[in-house]
Amino acid sequence: MDEKTKFEIEFVIQASPQLLFQYLATPSGLSEWFADNVNSRGERFTFIWEGTEEVARLLKRKTDEFVRFAWEYNDDDSYFEMRIIVDEITKDVSLFITDFAEEDELEEAKMLWTNQVSDLKQILGST
């Protein structure tokens, strides 16, 4: 299996950390922008896109700060994390994404996140 490359992208979001966290950590919130439908049973989240299901485990979460998931099919240490960062001076809120992709899929993965977060911003009314 090819070695995956870790990447990080940051998006400025005009929303409170509390509101944003609901869209990152709950099945109903994730269903609004990340997948067509999301179900959870404990730490196990099932993401559904156009009839295809992918299961991820919730590895860590800290209310109003971050969530970290790992896809069940991964046999490596990769994960994806959505972290809320608030600038201490300006109070600007950013969504910081950490994910892993194979080298030849890096740009595609970044574009996918950009598109997904664009949907999230639209839902939140953040430009």
TrEMBL record:
<dbReference type="Pfam" id="PF19569">
    <property type="entry name" value="START_2"/>
</dbReference>
<dbReference type="InterPro" id="IPR045736">
    <property type="entry name" value="START_2"/>
</dbReference>
<dbReference type="InterPro" id="IPR023393">
    <property type="entry name" value="START-like_dom_sf"/>
</dbReference>
<feature type="domain" description="START-like">
    <location>
        <begin position="1"/>
        <end position="125"/>
    </location>
</feature>
<protein>
    <recommendedName>
        <fullName>START-like domain-containing protein</fullName>
    </recommendedName>
</protein>
